[in-house]
Amino acid sequence: MMPGNLPASGPPGTTASYAVQRTALERYFDGTARQAWADLTSNVPVSGIRATVRAGRDRMRATLLGWLPQDLSGTRLLDAGCGTGALAGEVARRGASVLAVDVAGGLVDLASLRTGAIAGPGSIDWRVGDMLDPAFGRFDYVVAMDSLIHYPLADIADALTALAERTSKAMLFTFAPSTPVLATMHAVGKFFPRADRAPAIQPVAAARLRRRLAELPGWRIARDQRIASGFYTSHALELVRI
């Protein structure tokens, strides 16, 4: 499926708000932000603000990778919202069969170019599409780094519920925690011209999200970690199959 051709509605069970936000993300990351995101996820010099975001994302990726086994041979992993592919490349080098999907076709193309051939037993299947598409099949692990931060609590919970049905070991994901700093950034962003805005990050109350996920049958909340680096704040949670 080529960029710009994602269906207007999401996979079965998703809400209208999920579909609208997913479309906004596709347009933003394949349009306004494409070059900026390519620069941010590389080693080229960036502004001080973007440098804090880069450092925060690097720390978060290292955290999530640290929660995964060093040997992933024989496992299948979904990189849900793979961006430019840094995490997908690392887990493939550990031996995983990775399905790396993102709504932004330009980022997926860049990820494929950057990653190149994987030496060893692992592999990457790059896809442009919806991370919740049931046609992608079943997985041992799911990692969704900063791909759910643009959705409200209800959509995050629904997305994880859908993925839980097709995941056998663990789901690692991040959300935007509700903090005074994020609330201020969210409010200030509304004053930017609409064409220049990123799709809004949706701050979520961590306690409310944990209560909601505690109701997910067959799963329990394990490790959690908040990373704050300048203009980057994200909270990681690990859900493990009981």
Question: Can you tell me about this structure?
Answer:
The structure is a single chain. With 242 residues, the protein is an alpha/beta fold. The protein has one domain: Vaccinia Virus protein VP39 (Rossmann fold, 3-Layer(aba) Sandwich). 37% of the residues lie in helices and 22% in strands. The protein contains eight helices and seven strands. The protein has helices at 16-29, 34-40, 48-66, 86-93, 105-115, 153-164, 180-189, 206-213; strands at residues 76-80, 97-102, 123-128, 139-144, 167-175, 219-229, 232-241. It has a seven-stranded mixed β-sheet, sandwiched between helices. Strand 1, helix 4 and strand 2 form a beta-alpha-beta unit.
CATH class wording: Alpha Beta
Query: Order of helices and strands, N to C?
Result: HHHEHEHEEHEHHEE
Estimate the mean pLDDT confidence. Answer: 90
* CATH level-four homologous superfamily name: Vaccinia Virus protein VP39
Question: What is the total number of structural domains?
Answer: 1
Low-confidence stretches: 191-197
Total beta strand runs: 7
* Structural class label: alpha/beta
Remind me, CATH topology? Answer: Rossmann fold
- The CATH architecture term is 3-Layer(aba) Sandwich
For the terminal residues, how far apart are their CA atoms? 35 Å
Percent strand equals 15-25%
Largest sheet: 7 strands, mixed
Q: What is the 3D form?
A: globular
- Helical segment count: 8
Q: How are the strands of the biggest sheet laid out side by side?
A: 3-2-1-4-5-7-6
Radius of gyration: 17 Å
Helix content: 25-40%
